[in-house]
Write a structure and sequence with these properties.
By secondary structure, this protein is of the alpha+beta class. It has 15 helices and 28 strands.
Length: 651
Amino acid sequence: MRVSILAGASALAFAASACGTPVKTQPEASTSAEAPVANVTTSTTSIDPSDRTALFGDLHVHTGQSFDAFISSVRATPDDAYRYAKGEKLITDGGYEIQLDSPLDFLAVTDHGEYLGIMPVMATPGTNLSRTSFAKSVFGPDATNPAQSFQNVGITIVTGEEVEEIYDRDVIDSAWAKNVETAERHNEPGKFTAFSGYEFTAMTQVMDSEIPAAANLHRNVIFRGAAPDRLFSTLDSPNPEDLWVWMDAQRAEGLDVMSIPHNSNASNGEMFASETYEGGQLTANYAVTRMRNEPVIEITQVKGTSEAHPALSPNDEWANFEIYDTLIGSAAKSTPHIGDFARNALARGLGFEEAENFNPYKFGFIGSSDTHIGAGSFDETNFTGKFPQDGSNPEFRHSVPPEGADSWDGVASLKSLPPGAVKPSMRRKLSAGKYSASGLAGVWADENTREAIFDAIRRKETFGTSGPRIKARMFAGYGFEQAMLSDPDLVSAAYRTGVTQGSELVSTGQPPSILAWAIRDPASSPLQRLQIIKVWSDAQGKAHEVVYDAACSGGAKPDADTHRCPDNGASVNVSNCSTEPGSGVGELKTLWTDPNHDPSRRAAYYVRVLENPSCRWSTWDAVRNGSPPNPNMPALIQERAWTSPIWVNPE
């Protein structure tokens, strides 16, 4: 059971405090019948949905306005982040230059709402905050213990009790206003979309951990257009359900907004739990409130992938993908729970729907980066990590042998040492070695504007990728025919006679046809296979899942018994990262029918498409260094994309 730190109060009272003396309040629980009415904005576009285009962006970017980035020597600004997303070069705070091969279509700077902008002001001589004893312990010439001071700030995000000496709401409000202004200035409708946003950095203490650790409940809060003068952070309440009440209050005032959970893989089972934040029973109102405010989740980012885990999905050969196995901000190992991973959460939601007639986990998928240098790193061949030092030295991120060694032979694995033998600096190296060159948010939008992209996310017509700009699409219906696949009006027909990803379909008693379609990123590897993942819950409430290869490269057919494509002949030479494409292709498209459809049971289906294998970033580092890959890291990777699910319901 988790107990909120703060006493109850009205969400509207907090909203009103933004215009006057700062008041710290906690809204009533979002499961209350008295929760504010939400006016969800709906699209007014008259554009034909068949004209929707795939757009790629990043909705999770930190700059030096975030306390953890600044303390890690990041001085990049929100302005830098938007210019980088538009294709400009950026000199990082690690001293190296980075630039995207092609610009993104949209971006949100999402600095931590807690202590937003506080650290830069603390480090500026002559300011009131620079004169505090806390500032002097971190930034002064006689700084005593900056690392401990950072930990003290982080602890308050778990407890919800701020460091009063440095918690200056005027500074936070000013920094937030500048972030909003920067987004407005960079927003170019039709060309580039800049959203106003921030991170709500909720965490709860893990009581059974041998070393200090916290479960991750972070969310990114994204505004459709205009943003309020004051944000709501965990220092107002650490309970995400209170965030939803505040969001409903903003929406009632005409400011549409959503929050996007991330890193459920490190939530200790709490992100998609079977109870409320405070240990109460889930209700239909809880489910409606949660889905209204959180229509999608972030399935992949720099701290790993949250789709599935091999311990929970043992029959999925591709579940062991970019697993981040520690809790956030700690060396404590995480244990996989059902509440940590998207696939298990989808099944849990279906179980609730079967038993209780509501589903709190009917979400779609996106990806994003969680970069802390203002610039996402999506390319395995040129990975720059999360913090400045990650990209400055391959040895630091543990991808090449330590100084003085030309191979890994005889070099003891840091992972094999007992926890007490690993120095703090080594823990940081291990953490950097687990980072992923991921990910991107994909949307099928009417146009490149705030309204169109936000509305696409709201209806869950989205997909996430592990970095490449793979376009992934999914429809389901009962009027689909094989001839559609070669019809130039395929998309129009699919919209007209079926539903798209993020939608629901009522069963007619017959299995629906699923149209699954993916197009490769020309700058990345060819596609190897297109899969359909099915999850469902039986009459006893037991969750099930199955992975079907639905389309194979080279025109091959999946085996009827194993549902797997044959080997397509693709290979990688890890000594130089050269590849042989085998029968890898630029496009995979198929009509697929569930061979085990049960019209009496609810099910969720989503598409996962895999590229041919290629070198992971750590192997690229080793090749450039002239050394073999670190044996404790995956040598290869199969980049991928995931569509939002389609839910098929009984009549």
